[in-house]
Design brief:
The complex is a heterodimer. By secondary structure, chain A is α+β, with helices and mostly antiparallel strands. Chain A is 29% helix and 29% strand. In chain A, a hairpin with a 3-residue loop joins strand 5 and strand 6. By secondary structure, chain B is an alpha/beta fold. Chain B is 27% helix and 24% strand. Chain B contains 5 helices and 10 strands, in the order αβαβαβαβαββββββ. Chain B is globular, with a radius of gyration of 18 Å. The chains are: A alpha+beta, B alpha/beta. The interface between A and B is large, with 58 and 58 residues.
C-alpha cells in the first residue's frame, strides 16, 4: 500500500504566536530580532512587515529605515522548536505518526487515516481550518512522498492534494527551490537556466550527478518516490494501540466508559489472537481545548481480560475532567508479554498464589491505594527479629530457606520496642515484675534468656537478651534487656511483642 | 413410625438450615479444624466456612490470643497451598509466628491501608475473590450495612472471612455467623518443670447463628487443639441472644 504524507507549512509561526499573546499587535507590522555580532538581526517577520519587503536575516536597523513604524520585539530563542513540538503532539489526534519538519513545518504520515474524516479533501480542510482558527497561518499539501508534499505546501499553485502517483506532473512546473536543496546548488541551477524541475527530469542522471553532486539526485528521488525517506515521529508509535475518534466531544462519565469498553474490546481481541497480554495500559484522552489526559494502570500478570482491565480503569475514570469535551480516546499497551490461555485455565480453580482472580484483586487494590500497600514476606537468614523477614519482590517469589520453627516468636510484634520498668535479679534471671503502660505485671513463669546479637556488619549497638514471660493472669510477653548490666547505668528493658 | 413433637421439631430445624445458607456438609468436604467440641456449637456440627466470623478483643494481649487462635483455623483453610489476605490499617502481626501454627507465612498477602474505610473496601473486594482461602480484616468499627455487604460477598464466593475488632467503640450486632472473644489463660507445665508452657486460651463463643453459644478452654500443643474443660454453657439463658 502506498504511503500518504501531509506537509504543513507555518508561514509565520513565531509571529502568529506573538499575535495570540498580544492581540493589540494585529494591525502593526512587527519583527522579532536577536542580537548577533553586536547587531540586531531579524529572526521572524509578520505578514504585514513581509509585505513591505522586510525579510529574515536583515539587520533591524535597516528594516526600520525601510519602515519607520516597524516594531522590533525581542526573540525568545527556542520558541519555534517548542511550538512545533506542541503542534505535532496536537496533530496526533489526526494520525499517530507526526514529525517536526525543519524550523517551520510538520510532516504527518496520514496513510489510512483520511477516510475517517470522509475523504482526503475533508481531512485536509479540517486540519487547516482548525489551525487557522487557532491563529496560525498555514498551508498544507498531501502527496505520496514527503518531498512532493513539502514542495506543494510551499510553492504549489494548483491543488493541495496530489493524487497517488502524480508527483511528476505536479512537480514539473515548480522551481528547483522546492526540492529542498542547498542554496549554492539552487543558485547554480538558476544560473544555468534549469528552472522548472521538469527540465531536470529529462536530463541523464550521470550528468546531473557529475555537475551537482549526489545530493540533487537524492532529493529528486525522494520527491518522486523512488527513494524512501524516514521521518522521526515526536512520539514513537506504540505497536499495541487503539484509537477512537468521536463525532461529538464526550462530556460524561458514561460516555468515557463506553469509549473505554470499546477500545478494550478491540485491543484485547487482538492480544488474545496473538497469545499476548498486557502489563501496563495507558488510556489517553485528547480534550477539545488541546489538553491531553493520561490514565495508567498496571497489572501483576500479563492479561487480556476485558472485564478486569475495565474495572481497573473504572476506579480512575472519576479523575478524568472532560471540561469542554474529549474528542479522541487512545488506548495503548506499552508493556506486552506472552500470556498463554492454557496456563490460565490450569490455575483457574486452584486457590493458591497463582490464581488469576487473586492477581486481579491485587491489581485493583494497587490501582486504588498504590502498590506499596501490598506486602508479602519471605524468611531471611537473620536472627535479629526485625530482619528475620524480607519483603518479597513479586507474587511468584519462593522462599529460599525454610521458615524456622525452633525459636518461639510472638504472634504480635511491636514495630518499635517499648521501654518498660523492670525488677530483675542479677545476673541473668528473668524479671520478677514489670510495669507497662502504668499496669504492673507480676511474672509467674519465664523462659530465657535467648541472646540475639546485633549483626555488627549491618549496624552498631548492644545485643538483646530476650525472655518469654507469663504474668499471673496468663498473659504472655516477649521482653528483652538491651546490652549487659553495667556498673554506672541502669539496664534498659523493652517489651517487644505479645505471645498468643 | 412414631412421630413425637421432638422429632417434628428436629426435622423442621433441619429443613430450615439449608434455607438460611447452612448446607449440610458433604462427605469429605468438611473442614477439619480440630476444634472438637467447639464445632458442636455450630449448626450441623461443622465450623462454618464461607461466612464471616467476628472476633472481639479489648487489650493487646487479647488481640495476640485471637491471632493465635485463628492461625490454626487459617492453616486448615489454607491447607492445599491456598492463599490468604490480611488487611489492616495498623498491623502488628509478625508473619514468622504463623508458621508455628501451621500456616505458610509466604502464602499470606498483607495489605496495609492507611484508612479504615479503605480496609472495609479492600475486605469486600477480597471476599468477592473466589481464589482465596481466607480473608482477615482488622477493622475497628463496621456498621451493619457494611457487614451485610461482606456477608453477601461471601455467600457468593464461599470465602471465609475473619473480622478482628480491637477495642471497638460500639458493640452493636453486625452480620456475622459468630462472635468470638478469645483471651489468654495461664499455661501449665508438668509438675516441676520451669518455663512457659503451651498457649492456652479461654474461647468464648458469644453469639452464633442457629447454634449454641458456649465457653471452652483450649490449649494449642503438638500442632493441634486440646480441650481442657468440658463445655460450659455460655452465660445464663436469659442473656443469650441470637445474632441477626
Amino acid at each position: 500500500m502506498s504511503k500518504r504524507y501531509l506537509s504543513i507549512w507555518f508561514r509565520h509561526l513565531v509571529t502568529d504566536k506573538y499575535l495570540l499573546r498580544r492581540p493589540a499587535l494585529r494591525n502593526t507590522p512587527f519583527v522579532l530580532a536577536a542580537p548577533d555580532r553586536g547587531r540586531m538581526i531579524i529572526t521572524a517577520v509578520n505578514a504585514l512587515a513581509q509585505a513591505q519587503g522586510i525579510v529574515i536575516g536583515m539587520a533591524a536597523a535597516d528594516a526600520r529605515a525601510i519602515l519607520p513604524s516597524l516594531q522590533v520585539l525581542d526573540d525568545q530563542p527556542g520558541l519555534a522548536g517548542k511550538l512545533l513540538k506542541a503542534l505535532a503532539e496536537w496533530c496526533i489526534r489526526y494520525t499517530p505518526i507526526t514529525a517536526v519538519d525543519g524550523a517551520d513545518g510538520l510532516i504527518l504520515d496520514v496513510t489510512g487515516c483520511a477516510h475517517l474524516w470522509g475523504g482526503e479533501r475533508e481531512y485536509l480542510k479540517e486540519i487547516v481550518t482548525r489551525l487557522k482558527t487557532s491563529g496560525y497561518n498555514v498551508r498544507a499539501a498531501m502527496s505520496d512522498t514527503i518531498g512532493a508534499a513539502w514542495a506543494i505546501a510551499r510553492y504549489g499553485q494548483v491543488t493541495p492534494i496530489i493524487e497517488p502517483g502524480e508527483q511528476v506532473a505536479a512537480l514539473q512546473a515548480l522551481h528547483p527551490i522546492a526540492l529542498r536543496l542547498e542554496d549554492p546548488t539552487t543558485e547554480r541551477l538558476q544560473k544555468l537556466g534549469l528552472t522548472p524541475i521538469g527540465k531536470l527530469l529529462n536530463m541523464p542522471r550521470s550528468a546531473l550527478r557529475r555537475r551537482f553532486g549526489p545530493a540533487l539526485l537524492h532529493r529528486l528521488d525522494q520527491a518522486l518516490g523512488r527513494e524512501e525517506e524516514p521521518i522521526e515521529p515526536v512520539q514513537p508509535p506504540v505497536p499495541y494501540q487503539e484509537r477512537l475518534p468521536c463525532l461529538e466531544p464526550i462530556l460524561t462519565g458514561t460516555g468515557i466508559e463506553i469509549a473505554l469498553q470499546r477500545l478494550l474490546e478491540t485491543l484485547c481481541h487482538r492480544l488474545r489472537q496473538e497469545g499476548k497480554g498486557l502489563r501496563t495500559a495507558t488510556f489517553i484522552c485528547y480534550r477539545v481545548d488541546g489538553q491531553v489526559i493520561h490514565v495508567q494502570v498496571g497489572t501483576n500478570r500479563a492479561t487480556h481480560h476485558i472485564e478486569h482491565l475495565f474495572r481497573l480503569f473504572e476506579l480512575k475514570i472519576p479523575t478524568i475532567e472532560p471540561d469542554l469535551g474529549i474528542e479522541l480516546f487512545v488506548l495503548e499497551a506499552p508493556d506486552v508479554e506472552e500470556a498463554s490461555p492454557m496456563q490460565e485455565k490450569l490455575w483457574e480453580n486452584a486457590c493458591g498464589l497463582d490464581n488469576p482472580h487473586l492477581s486481579e484483586l491485587l491489581d485493583r487494590i494497587a490501582g486504588k491505594s498504590g502498590a506499596h500497600t501490598i506486602h508479602r514476606y519471605l524468611p531471611d537468614e537473620h536472627y535479629w527479629p526485625e530482619r528475620s523477614i524480607k519483603a518479597a519482590t513479586s507474587i511468584q517469589d519462593k522462599p529460599t530457606t525454610a521458615w524456622r520453627l525452633d525459636r518461639p516468636r510472638p504472634i504480635r510484634l511491636l514495630a518499635k520496642p517499648e521501654p518498660i520498668s523492670v525488677t530483675a535479679p542479677i545476673p541473668d534471671y528473668p524479671p520478677m515484675l514489670f510495669r507497662y503502660k502504668g499496669a504492673l505485671h507480676k511474672i509467674a513463669k519465664a523462659d530465657g534468656p535467648e541472646r540475639i546479637e546485633r549483626e555488627w556488619w549491618l549496624d552498631q549497638g548492644a545485643h538483646r537478651d530476650y525472655y518469654i514471660v507469663e504474668d499471673e493472669d496468663g498473659r504472655r510477653y516477649w521482653l528483652f534487656r538491651s546490652g549487659h548490666y553495667a556498673e554506672d547505668k541502669p539496664p534498659q528493658w523493652f517489651l517487644h511483642g505479645f505471645f498468643a | 413410625m412414631p412421630r413425637t413433637n421432638q422429632d417434628i421439631m428436629a426435622q423442621l430445624q433441619r429443613d430450615i438450615l439449608p434455607l438460611q445458607g447452612f448446607k449440610p456438609p458433604s462427605k469429605g468436604a468438611a473442614l477439619d479444624t480440630g476444634l472438637g467440641p467447639v464445632e458442636a456449637a455450630f449448626p450441623n456440627g461443622t465450623f462454618p466456612t464461607g461466612a464471616v466470623h467476628e472476633f472481639l478483643s479489648s487489650t493487646a494481649e487479647d488481640a495476640a490470643a485471637t491471632g493465635g487462635f485463628i492461625a490454626p483455623l487459617l492453616a486448615a483453610l489454607m491447607r492445599n497451598g491456598g492463599s490468604g489476605v490480611w488487611i489492616s490499617s495498623s498491623r502488628t502481626l509478625f508473619p514468622p509466628a504463623l508458621s508455628i501454627f501451621g500456616v505458610e507465612p509466604d502464602q499470606m498477602i498483607f495489605i496495609d491501608l492507611p484508612r479504615e474505610r479503605d480496609v472495609i473496601w479492600a475486605m469486600e473486594e477480597a471476599l468477592k475473590c473466589e481464589g482465596l482461602a481466607a480473608v482477615i480484616g482488622e477493622i475497628k468499627e463496621i456498621d451493619l450495612t457494611s457487614s451485610r455487604r461482606l456477608q453477601l460477598a461471601v455467600e457468593k464466593s464461599r470465602v471465609t472471612g475473619f473480622i478482628l475488632r480491637h477495642q471497638p467503640r460500639h458493640l452493636h450486632p453486625i452480620a456475622a455467623v459468630a462472635r468470638w472473644n478469645i483471651s489468654p489463660l495461664a499455661s501449665e507445665l508438668e509438675e516441676g518443670l520451669p518455663g512457659v508452657g503451651y498457649p492456652r486460651w479461654n474461647v468464648e463463643l458469644e453469639k452464633v447463628r442457629n447454634g449454641k453459644p458456649g465457653n471452652w478452654q483450649l490449649e494449642w500443643s503438638a500442632g493441634r487443639f486440646r480441650v481442657l474443660s468440658p463445655t460450659v454453657p455460655y452465660l445464663a439463658q436469659a442473656r443469650r441472644r441470637k445474632t441477626g
